[in-house]
Write a structure and sequence with these properties.
The protein has 294 residues and is α/β, with parallel strands linked by helices. It has one domain: NADP-dependent oxidoreductase domain (TIM Barrel). It has nine helices and ten strands. An eight-stranded parallel β-barrel has the order 3-4-5-6-7-8-9-10, surrounded by four helices. β6, α4 and β7 form a beta-alpha-beta unit. The longest helix has 15 residues, at 92-106. The protein starts with 6 loop residues before the first strand and ends in a 14-residue tail after the last helix. Keywords: NADP, Oxidoreductase. It comes from Sciurus carolinensis (Eastern gray squirrel). Residues 19-284 form the NADP-dependent oxidoreductase domain.
Amino acid sequence: MSSKYQYVELSDGHFIPALGFGTYKPEEVPNSKTKEATKIAIEAGFRHIDCAYAYQVEEEVGLAIRSKIADGTVKREDIFYTSKLWSTFHRPELAQSCLERSLKKLHLDYVDLYLIHYPLSMKPGEELYPRDENGKLIYDTVDLCAIWEAMEKCKDAGLAKSIGVSNFNRRQLEMILNKPGLRYKPVCNQVECHVYLNQKKLLDFCKSKNIVLVAYGALGTQRDKKWVDQSSPVLLDDPVLGALAKKHKRSPALIALRYQLQRGVVVLAQSLKENEIKENIQVYRMTVGIGVLK
């Protein structure tokens, strides 16, 4: 990582900005909000944009990126763009078509990083979440190593500069790393990671294999009522974060982000609010460490 916590070198020689802008949004939020937020993020200084086929906002994110290229704010090579292979495209013959769909929506020639979104396969088709007549998800059985070989072909085709995984545990990572004939190993593993879920064991393993850990949910778990107990603690209201924020005259969000950077983790900051987006990029201006958090 550079001395200013700005870039991390990947095992394939490419560099990933250590702070990224996340573009996932709740279903009820209009896609246009993501487009405007992405523009604001680029204007504020974000150069790492994290998205996915399943987020269903790549068209809007692409418009935002291209508008900032058109007005001279950035060049294409300044932007590090991540997309992800969705679970309904896991069959090897389908994987590249998912990436091609993303690129078509984005109007880009390549992505900088392409990830297997989940180590979980679902029935191929146009439905993001295919369900049976009882409302249960319809899964598919696809070998992880076969999916990885399809990812390698995406890199060979020049459609993705780097390839990695997301939401993988150690055992699943080892399946890829130990695959006979492995040509490219995963450069990163993107997982939920924050003060309440620090992923220390997984981080140590990834570091031992020169795999970068990328943290999503760094400012707290998405509090979707379908998945999260609404009585669970709100991370940014944590008293320890609050005390550190007061001590360093920074927001709890900046403390949470800086915590990840100091661990050697690439961190995604997600917000649709202009003031929060502009504040999050200020993490590089923090001149002191926060070694209290472990």
